[in-house]
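Tokens as discussed.
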């Protein structure tokens, strides 16, 4: 076992802080002319104001919508390859997917738990992880705010925020068409129009998109491709300015998605226990896989399931934002929103087409309906005085109702034939908050940062499960009925100092306290032991950073060192029901994440842009209390957290040069690398993805004057195989399954764009 609790880890963070300070020696107050070699300004809304990225005392990673489209990055999972501090847990359904920031995220399908990483789209919080299926077809940019951000952002954001900002309507009539086709029978189409509707009073935007991919996993039994998608959606926005002081922004969006992700493909038919490394083989199960034509391996892309696993989602909502200039530089903002999420999933739990006395056939069918209503009211003071601030009130009401059925077909044994369990469960969550953050400007260069958020959570749940058997059967607990309610109050806060070393360089040191409310572990196999609520998750974070532009603004850097301690960390655990593995949520004691992060952009010569984004993140368990009945060994103190590679980086080079009149040649290549990653809290050695790197490149022709571009891209040039997720290895499992990413092998594609 690696001892992560040594002082060497803290020394490394202090070394990172020293590196931050050393960079300040390169600071220059000189403002270079705009000559094609200066790094342009990036504007973000991380503090509910439009500010230059380089002036905000938060470590922020930004990816533009144009960059995402050019690289065939379509959702948050794709973006995680470009932003090293972000990781993504995929699954057979959106219910199972989770975003991680700096090694921290919440893995749970329970409606009674909120994510520790908050997803925000145009100021509206998505309170369930499954709502984060944001298509990037019409996105202006994505901001990732690393570390606790609960002071200003609605709901609770104890680990970080992914802030998605969509495009606004244009002042003149415009339109666009995007088309992409890629190997493996994947295509994407998008189009939109934008412009004035009533001169100087109303402008609008409408975008539609669709995409489809057959998949890169073969289902031998059904003679079909799986692990693909079929998505369609639209987004509309209206901006009205009835007078010079009032702006009304109405937004509406809808997305229908169908995913055919299998519940994993087999990599092994044995189990290696942690920490003993004892090996258990399952020859009977291996024989079934061989009979069905499946050869488990680290790069296996075949299954033989008699049910095609699929999940359908409908995500949509409306919002109205009102910005009212009150005079003397004050602005009052109101954001009222309603969102609906409907999920239907049908999954082959057993992942086989053969039923035996030892291995029954199991299918899952689930229906989910979730509605949320939210209101945020805030006021922003003018800047430039001794004190400037943002303060407000927040309210969110979320209501969830779900039905989940598990069908079990057994041959022989105590309960032969067909049996099933069915659960009706749900939750309500009301979140109230009052918040504010201020800058106390002692001088033009030195300011104090103070912020706080008072939070109230009123949470309740119900669960009623029936079963055709009075006792537990494989993967199904007996009948159960339970309910509960809990009200808790907490707070988030931030304090820090910011000092401008020059007009182009700023430095900061901050302390932040994060809070994530109580949770109920509400799921299909819930038992009486899990009726009590989980305690709120809290965090204490320390960060020192520096950001700015150097060397005649040819280089832009954002470097920070961080250390965050989490208490009552809400994490995914496992137990077994008659030999079948079941997951649930527990308070996993205390964990820590510490490291150094850097985002650097350079333009050494005209037309050449170099980018490096990297993070060293040591995220590990400090103290883990063993949950009753857990299949996880309790000796995991000092071991890494799931989805937390120690090292992760994104390196990119782009060179653009004119070739003929009004046409440029654009050459781009990037390399994404990460160290070994453990995917399970059980620390099973077989669920570690070894270190790997993915090399991509593209070549394009661009005509800004004529509004068109054409690009040929290749993903995973070296044909490197890896798994985006590994599951199994616990007591009760018969091996390991992998989730296959889109770029598990090399593929080519073409992107076309035309403005009109």
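Sequence:
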């Amino acid at each position: 076992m690696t001892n992560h609790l040594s002082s060497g880890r803290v020394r490394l963070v202090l070394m990172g802080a020293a590196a931050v300070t050393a960079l300040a020696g390169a600071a220059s107050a000189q403002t270079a002319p705009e000559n094609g070699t200066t790094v342009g300004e990036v504007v973000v809304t991380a503090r509910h104001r439009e500010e230059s990225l380089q002036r905000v005392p938060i470590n922020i990673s930004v990816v533009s919508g144009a960059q995402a489209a050019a690289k065939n990055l379509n959702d948050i999972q794709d973006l995680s390859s470009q932003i090293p501090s972000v990781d993504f847990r995929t699954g057979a359904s959106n219910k199972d997917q989770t975003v991680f920031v700096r090694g921290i995220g919440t893995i749970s399908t329970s409606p009674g738990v909120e994510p520790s990483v908050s997803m925000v789209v145009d100021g509206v919080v998505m309170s369930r992880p499954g709502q984060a299926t944001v298509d990037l077809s019409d996105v202006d940019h994505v901001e990732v705010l690393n570390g606790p951000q609960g002071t200003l952002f609605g709901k609770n954001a104890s680990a970080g925020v992914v802030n998605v900002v969509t495009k606004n309507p244009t002042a003149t009539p415009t339109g666009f068409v995007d088309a992409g086709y890629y190997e493996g029978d994947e295509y994407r189409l998008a189009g939109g129009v934008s412009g004035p509707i009533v001169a100087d009073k109303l402008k609008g935007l409408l975008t539609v998109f669709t995409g489809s991919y057959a998949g890169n996993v073969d289902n031998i039994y059904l003679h079909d491709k799986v692990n693909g998608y079929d998505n369609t959606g639209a987004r509309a926005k209206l901006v009205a300015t009835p007078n010079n002081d009032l702006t009304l922004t109405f937004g509406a969006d809808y997305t229908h998605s169908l995913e055919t992700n299998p519940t994993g493909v087999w990599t092994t038919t044995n189990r290696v226990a942690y920490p003993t490394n004892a090996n258990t083989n399952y020859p009977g199960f291996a024989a079934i896989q061989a009979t069905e034509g499946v050869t488990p391996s680290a790069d296996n892309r075949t299954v033989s399931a008699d049910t095609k696993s699929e999940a359908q989602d409908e995500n949509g909502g409306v919002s109205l934002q009102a910005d009212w200039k009150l005079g003397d530089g004050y602005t009052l903002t109101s954001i009222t929103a309603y969102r609906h999420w409907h999920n239907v999933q049908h999954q082959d739990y057993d992942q086989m087409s053969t039923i035996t006395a030892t291995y029954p056939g199991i299918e899952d069918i689930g229906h989910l309906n979730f509605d949320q209503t939210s209101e945020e009211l805030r006021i922003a003071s003018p800047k430039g005085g001794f004190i400037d601030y943002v303060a407000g009130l927040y309210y969110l009401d979320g209501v969830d109702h779900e039905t989940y059925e598990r069908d079990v077909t057994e041959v022989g044994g105590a309960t032969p034939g067909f049996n099933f369990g069915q659960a009706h469960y749900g939750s309500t969550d009301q979140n109230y908050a009052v918040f504010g953050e201020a800058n106390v400007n002692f001088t033009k260069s030195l300011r104090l940062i103070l912020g706080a958020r008072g939070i109230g959570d009123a949470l309740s749940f119900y669960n009623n499960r029936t079963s055709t058997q009075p006792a537990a059967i494989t993967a199904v607990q007996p009948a159960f009925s339970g309910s509960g309610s809990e009200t808790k109050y907490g707070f988030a806060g931030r304090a820090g100092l910011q000092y401008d070393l020059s007009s182009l360089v700023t430095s900061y040191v901050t302390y932040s306290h994060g809070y994530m409310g109580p949770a109920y572990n509400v799921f299909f196999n819930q038992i009486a032991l899990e009726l009590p609520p989980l305690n709120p998750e809290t965090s204490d974070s320390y960060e020192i950073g520096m950001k700015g532009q150097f060397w005649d603004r040819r280089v832009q850097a954002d470097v920070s060192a961080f250390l965050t301690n989490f208490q009552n960390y809400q994490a995914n655990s496992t137990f077994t029901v008659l030999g079948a593995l079941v997951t649930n949520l527990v308070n996993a004691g205390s964990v820590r994440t510490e490291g150094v992060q850097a985002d650097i952009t350079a333009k050494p010569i005209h037309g050449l842009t170099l980018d490096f984004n990297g993070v060293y993140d040591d995220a590990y368990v400090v103290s883990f209390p063993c949950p009753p009945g857990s299949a996880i060994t309790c000796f995991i103190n000092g071991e890494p957290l799931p989805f937390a590679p120690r090292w992760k980086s994104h390196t990119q080079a782009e060179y653009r040069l004119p070739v003929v009149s009004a046409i440029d040649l654009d050459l781009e290549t990037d390399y994404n690398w990460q160290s070994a990653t453990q995917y399970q809290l059980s620390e099973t050695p077989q669920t570690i993805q070894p270190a790997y790197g993915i090399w991509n490149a593209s070549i394009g022709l661009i005509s800004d004057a004529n509004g068109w571009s054409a690009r040929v891209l290749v993903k995973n040039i070296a044909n490197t195989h890896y798994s985006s997720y590994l599951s199994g290895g616990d007591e009760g499992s018969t091996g390991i399954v992998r989730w296959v990413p889109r770029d598990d092998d090399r593929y080519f594609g073409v992107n076309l764009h035309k403005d009109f």
